[in-house]
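Sample entry (89 residues):
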Amino acid sequence: AVGQFTYVTAPVVTSIFPTSGPESGGTTVTINGFNFTGATAVLFGSVPATFFTILSDNQILAISPPGVGTVDVTVVTAGRTSAITPVDQ
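Predicted structure, serialized as C-alpha cells:
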C-alpha cells in the first residue's frame, strides 16, 4: 500500500479592514491574504469569529466576536494557522 502525505501551505494574512470595532463585536471585517481556501476557522485572539465566509483564496469576510483590547486575527486551515504579524491586529 502507498500512503500519501500532502504538505499544506499555511495561510497568510496581509491586511484586515477595518482594524477596530466595538467591544460588543459584530463588526464585519475583510481579511486579505492568501492560501485561505479550506479555512476552518477565523480567530480574533483565541476567540472564533461569530461567522465567516471564504470569498476567495485571497479574501475572507468575518464577523468579530465580543472582545477587548488589541488582538491578532488569524486564519486556520488544515492543521495550519497564519503567523502572527503586526498587520493582522
